[in-house]
Amino acid sequence: MKYMLLIWNRPGFTEELTEQDRTALFGEVDEIMKELTETGELVGGQALANPSQTLTVRLAGGHPEVVDGPFMESKEQFAGYLTVDCDSPQRAAEIAARWPDVRFGGALEVRPIMDEAGTEM
After folding, report:
1. Taking the alpha carbons of 61, 58, 74, 54 in that order, is the dihedral positive or negative?
2. Do 106 and 10 meet the contact criterion of CB atoms below 8 Å apart?
3. Which of 56, 72, 73, 116 gives 20 to 30 Å between its CA and that of 37?
4. What is the number of other CB atoms lying within 10 angstroms of the CB of residue 49?
């Protein structure tokens, strides 16, 4: 089963870290990615640009309207995602629990990805 691990973190938290701590954090991410690649569980993933570069489309006055900025106010920002293919939701949660952003106030949301038939709903 494939799972999307949605990475949420506090804006700017990496700037609060020392250079040594930042290097260690990114090293942990690299280790996890290497492991997931070696086990064949990594499907893909990307970091996202700063929310200040976001556009949001909403219905306003019966018509779609494009506005600058994230779609909602939040203490956390959607910072990126991983897609993994693993045997169980517990394994996906285990991977998410190891993600270093969690130690710095972030969170990872583990969501099953529906197949094209949508039978998981």
Report:
1. negative
2. yes
3. 116
4. 10
